[in-house]
Each structure stands twice: as C-alpha cells, then as structure tokens.
Amino acid sequence: QVQLVESGGGLVQAGGSLRLSCAASGSIFRLRDMEWYRQPPGKQREWVAGITNGGITNYADSVKGRFTTSRDNAKNTVYLQMNSLKPEDTAVYYCATDVLRRYWGQGTQVTVSS
Questions:
Q1: Which of 2, 23, 77, 109 is paired with 99 by a 20 to 30 Å CA distance?
Q2: Contacting residues for 87 by C-beta, under 8 A, at least 6 apart
Q3: Separation of alpha carbons 72 and 55, rounded Å
Q4: HSE, side-chain direction, 13 A CA sphere, residue 62
C-alpha cells in the first residue's frame, strides 16, 4: 500500500511562488518515479512534471523554466517549486506514482490571483 500526502498549496498573487510537498509512505520511495499533475477548474487533469528515481526531471511546456521538481529520498518527499505563477496555474495539484497500479494523493489547491 502506498500513501501520498500533498501540502503547501494556497493563495498567491501572480508572479509569486509556492513550494508543494508530497510525502510518500508504504513503499521503497527511492525506487519510485514520481509525477505531478494538476486539474484546473472545469478542465481535465494534466501532467505537469516528473522526476525519475535517479533524479532526471521532465516538465510540461506550460511550466518549463518556472517550475522545478526535486526529491529528498531521506525524507521520502518530492517537491514542486513553482515560481512566476500565473492565474492559469490555478488548479488542484496532485502527486502520483506507480506501484503495480497508479496511486494518487488527495491533492492540494493552488490559487493564483491576478
């Protein structure tokens, strides 16, 4: 069983920054690739970023250069640093990983005001 718990969301003005955290338990975290998704209001969930177990990162074009994902295997935690936030970044953000099946966190709300 894998549990993922996101935190760090909130309300921020455009141009501001937030750092999301995703704490993982129940499996060997350091062996797992981790991903970030988001679901804007009224839209489908979309992939945002990923980090492999070896620390290789990838980003959606919409966030490239503004968002950075990292991981601390000692803390079983993955992070999403979000800078230069825009109103269109407003969404519920989720972390996810695969251990025989896809696991999702409960999500954390990020709201960017203009």
A1: 109
A2: 14, 112, 113, 114
A3: 10
A4: 12
DSSP assignment letter at 84: S
């966030």: which residue's tokens?
A: 63
The torsion region of residue 85 among left (phi > 0), alpha (psi -120 to 50) and beta comes to: beta
pLDDT bucket at 37, cuts 50 / 70 / 90: very high
> Taking Cα atoms as reference points, which of 38, 45, 43 lies closest to residue 108?
38
Supply the mean pLDDT for the chain.
95
Contact 32, 85 (CB under 8 A): no
Using the CB atoms, write b or e for 43-60: b if 16+ within 10 Å: eeeeebbbbeeeeeeebe
- What is the average per-residue pLDDT within 97-106? 93
Q: How far apart are CA 52 and CA 57, in angstroms?
A: 7
Q: Which pair of tokens denotes residue 63? A: 């966030």
Contacts of 105 (CB under 8 A, 6+ apart): 4, 5, 6, 22, 94, 95, 96
Q: How far apart are CA 108 and CA 94, in angstroms?
A: 7
